[in-house]
Amino acid sequence: MRFEFSPEDEAFRLEVRAFFRDHLPPPMARRFYIGAHPPSREDVRAFQKLMHGRGWGAPHWPLEWGGTGWSPLRKHLFMQELYDADGLDYSWQGLHMVAPVMLAFASEAQKRRFLPPMLAGDEFWTQGFSEPNAGSDLASLKTRAERVGDEYIVNGQKIWTSDASMAEWGFFLVRTDADVKPQRGISFLLIRMDTPGLTVRPIVSIEGGLGLNEVFLDNVRVPCENLVGEPGMGWTYAKYLLGKERTASAFLYFNKRELEKAREIATVQRVNGQRLIDRPEFARELARVEVDLLALEYSVLRVLSQEKNRHDLDAVVSALKLRGSALQQRVTELQVEALGLHALRQWGHDEGEALAGGEALRWPPQVPGRTAQALITRASTIYGGSQEIQKNIIAKLAFGL
Ligand SMILES: Cc1cc2nc3c(=O)[nH]c(=O)nc-3n(C[C@H](O)[C@H](O)[C@H](O)COP(=O)(O)OP(=O)(O)OC[C@H]3O[C@@H](n4cnc5c(N)ncnc54)[C@H](O)[C@@H]3O)c2cc1C
Fold it and tell me: How many helices (H) and strands (E) does the chain have?
């Protein structure tokens, strides 16, 4: 197997690199580097507007809705440059999750209403699927939506709802029929987050971030026109959504960038006068992670280049998630190990601005944010399907167990 980028692709890569160099404000890039979780509402909006202004607001969308028409390989090159420049990944729940569902199943009126403001960075979205007793076993969700005239009356609770406090809209899985097989009674409903009766309560995550939330729905009235597709088809749409971004869960770009940062840290950190990177134990561990990451990258490229695989693609995608999330944890741990005592300083989620100014100067620039990143990446083996669930999928689809 040989991967080679054409001269046109190389030129494209340089064009993207130049754009970020010339247009991404350094203080913003610095805040993204520190990796505040979640990034501030202002930064998320400003970044999406920057991308939209260049015509890169949603590279993966169809051209007629504002996409770029890039090949999978170009998208790959683009994402690599975006991460290398310390840019912000695209708003996941909106552009990557609900948009593909809308493009496939929503009415023309819904597409025209919701897609343009999403692309322009004027409206952001949150995903209301999980509930206190419905995570891996999502089909057992209990939030009810009862149709009364032209409205649904929604009651229930969601949990782990990322970015709910920043979002204007949420896409929710709700039970509209309790008398059929669990999967058949679920519908896909769009709810404004400021609707009376809807309350968002933050959950402080391990590193002090406020990205996670509980969402309580108490007699929330939602117009029936906010239902996507057919009633009872929500499960099908949710499965479509979760299968849409086949290689993203490898966290490849994040992992590559963070490995480079680990290397940078190890180049400046010294132990007994010796650079950490020159110490065999550390160099060996770094090399081990690098080799694993290279294997992951080639696996991603094989999927992107649509190489034939003897296994079911869903099993391959689960394997990418399994390896990618474990590596995400390993790479960020490596940074913390390399920082040694410096890593004891926790940097809060709201310190980005201050750090971009004076205080950061008193610390080696690689320090802020690393410990918080290492802590929050513990979650990557849970969300988007836990490790055990991925292994179940691989066992079933790849090995017929
Ligand atoms: C940081 C973060 C962000 C999230 N963001 C969102 C969001 O925006 N929107 C949203 O809807 N949800 C979100 N989630 C929720 C996420 O999807 C769930 O946490 C996940 O599906 C696991 O469900 P659970 O937490 O209920 O754990 P459970 O399903 O209760 O699992 C508990 C443990 O049991 C194991 N287990 C469960 N079933 C099986 C099985 N069949 N075989 C073997 N082991 C099993 C699991 O692997 C896990 O170790 C987020 C979660 C996190 C941590």
Answer: 13, 9
